[in-house]
Amino acid sequence: MRCQFCGWDNPQGKEICEKCNKPLTSNVSEEVKTVVSKETNHDRPTDRYVAGAFNPKATVREIPGSDQLNDLEKNECPECGHSLEDGECPNCGYKIEDAPAPVPVKNADEARMTMRPIRKGEKTFEFKLVPISEETGMPEGDELAFEGNEVVLNRDNTDPQNTTITSLEQACLSFDNGKWCIEDRSEYKTTFVQASRKIELQQGDLILVGNQLYRFEL
Fold first, then answer.
1. 99, 73 in Cβ contact below 8 A?
2. Is residue 200 part of a domain?
3. Whole-prediction pTM
4. Is the terminal CB of the chain with fewer CB neighbours within 10 Å at N or C?
5. 215 within a domain of the structure (yes/no)
6. How far apart are CA 42 and CA 79, in angstroms?
7. Cα–Cα distance measured from residue 125 to residue 37, given in angstroms and rounded to the nearest whole number
8. Alpha carbons 135 and 173: distance in angstroms, whole number
9. 101 in a domain, yes or no?
10. Residue 77: how many other CB atoms lie within 10 Å
């Protein structure tokens, strides 16, 4: 039976409304029914929206708990509609601390962002880059710390004022088979590694000797 006061759809046989605790009766004057019909009813979950279920087409009003938050802003009890006194309803005993926390809403950019999942037991690795003076060979400036199994270097995360470093992708450092590897991704191929130890050469590798560039071929 639907309550004439709050509109709540109660099971058959109920004498008192589950929502507002008012008696259920069909002997209500037409004047009372007219007043009730003009009031905002609390919607009972229907087939279109099952309580607690995810509904991709839900509006803000259909999000679980959003109707209660709107009622609290009006200082009205979301359960029976009575005015709240010091955060508590004198009619049904509802308290504000019982209200659900608001659901954070992500903006469009955050919603489209995809993050690489970190699997259980997977270890992330760290490395540092120390700026070195080309004139003295000594460290200069603050060292840069990076973390992850794959890191893309660019102007923003290395030297923001250095226009010889691309703002897109200069190079990629990845940890593979227990070793760090570097791959040049710059438009003008300006990532070089000084050969201070034995380095494996592969077909097509470029070698800068002095100011002369060579291509290694097998």
1. no
2. no
3. 0.44
4. C
5. no
6. 8
7. 65
8. 26
9. no
10. 24
Residue with tokens 């009031």: 39
DSSP state of 148: S
Digit-coded pLDDT (tens) for 28-48: 555 555 554 554 444 444 444
- One-letter identity of residue 53: A
Q: How far, CA to CA in Å, does 5 sit from each of 23, 65, 127?
A: 9, 21, 68
Residues of the chain with pLDDT under 70: 25-74, 98-122
* pLDDT score at 141: 87
Range of the domain at 152: 126-189
Beta carbons within 8 Å of 136's beta carbon, 6+ residues apart: none
For the chain, the 3-state helix, strand and coil shares in percent, each to the nearest 5, are 15, 20, 65
Angstrom distances, CA of residue 52 to CA of 47, 68, 91: 12, 14, 26
pLDDT at residue 100, rounded to an integer: 62
